[in-house]
Amino acid sequence: MLAPKTFSIGGIHPPSMKYTADKSVVRLPLPDKVILHLSQHIGAPAKSIPFEINDRVNYGQIIAEAGGFVSAPIHATISGRVIALGNFKHPLGQSAPAIVIERDKEAVEPKFEKKENGLALPPSEILQRIKNAGIVGLGGAAFPTHVKLSPPPGVTIDTIILNGAECEPCLTSDHRMMLEESEKIIDGLRLAMKVVNAKHGYIAIEDNKQECIEKLDSLVSEIDNIDVQPLITKYPQGGEKQLIYAVTGREVPNGKLPSDVGVVVMNVTSAEAVSDAVNYGMPLTEKTVTLAGDCVKNPGNYRVRIGTPISDFIQMTGGLKEDVLPLKKVILGGPMMGFALYDLYTPIVKGTSGIICWSEKEAQPKPRTGCLRCGKCVEACPMGLEPLVLDALINAGRYEDAEKEGLLNCVNCGCCAYICPGGNPLVQNYVVAKNKIIAEKKKQAAKGNTK
Q1: 222-261 pLDDT, tens digit each
Q2: Taking phi first (over 0 means left), then psi (-120 to 50 degrees means alpha), and beta for anything else, what does residue 200 get?
Q3: Which of 126, 268, 368, 391 is the most exposed place for a label (fewest CB within 10 A)?
């Protein structure tokens, strides 16, 4: 077994709170309805097939086609009829186009059985099946997988890394999938390696998941070009640049992509979805999600249909506690990089990895005292930035200067805000500022295109 590795700059050690790591995945009943947003991935939103109210759709049917190269199709996750078309609340906070389907409780869904060995297929056919299935990065980033596996001409990919770090506190869905779907994860890695002709594959796992390391290491022991790489437990070990450095020693320059250093990074559950798509013909219609927090009756890991409203998801698991723990905050994702929700009618999307329901006791923010000039944020930043300087520039409205100081290289990991003894919302300020800078760049580019 390989020795544990880690990245070189910054990082923190928040409490792991992996209380559901021993909870096997439970498949939930089918929801009564789903809200399927056309934008569930990085890139152009999918383009809806023309529908009218009461139109019939079947499970697995494409209801929205990819809206461009960097896009992914959307499939019906239940059989039923279309009951609404329009804008509905999206997990990112805004309203966005979606298709709402009400389930036909009499419908019988198809059973998917393994049809063939996908490794016997040509790379182009494997890639097409991945694209048709609508697979995106399931760790949260939601970048279309077929695009990751289509490097530009002249770019050689020699290494694929499966990200099994799951460094976010509370989340354990990847942990369970590595134990319960090990063979599919390895198979998905081998399929992805064949598509890009990668010579080596790694499954990178933090060393607080020793049982995952041992199981997967035993399964790949007879495969010459795949290794399990243990990682020292440290946040944000699962960050793409941090992971690549830890596993290969290669540094991805600012403004560049992993493919520029010959690497593709995929989430372990994305690899499982690749195996399902290529070998079984299954589209991406469901997700394994961790439910955690002191307000829920049955914290655990649940397999749920994409598009299920979060309120329904929580209720299907047993609901919230009814005693002395009033619900204060619901986080979509992990506590470091997730989003606080303001409406539980928001649906689960492809990138949803966790839902955390906290009482006021757990969600209590730090008292805000202002910057103490202690430098802890600088020590913690895994990108080598100076968060206190960036924050001062942003607060002064000096966005151009903040950009020159490297603001756009921030990966939103939240290490600075977590470690700040003054309770300053550093990463939240960076997100707002980056959005303003990017919006201004798009505005200026549009002006240039009209000349």
Answers
A1: 999 999 999 999 999 999 999 999 999 999 999 899 999 9
A2: beta
A3: 368
Phi, psi for residue 139 in degrees, rounded to 5: -85, -10
Rg (CA), the chain: 22
- How far is 412 from 332, CA to CA, in rounded Å? 15
Q: How many CA atoms lie within 13 A of 384 on its CB side?
A: 8
Q: For residues 299 and 22, what is the distance between their CA atoms, to the nearest angstrom? A: 11
Burial 131-142 (b: 16+ CB within 10 A, else e): bbbbbbbbbbeb
Cβ atoms < 10 Å from Cβ of 357: 25
Strand partners for 228 = 203
Is residue 451 scored above 50 in pLDDT?
A: no
- The SS3 of residue 102 is strand
Per-residue tokens: 315? 């209720």
Phi, psi of 179 (to 5 degrees): -85, -40
pTM above 0.90, yes or no: yes
CB contact burial 311-332 (16+ within 10 A = b; e otherwise): bbbbebbeebbeeebebbbbbb
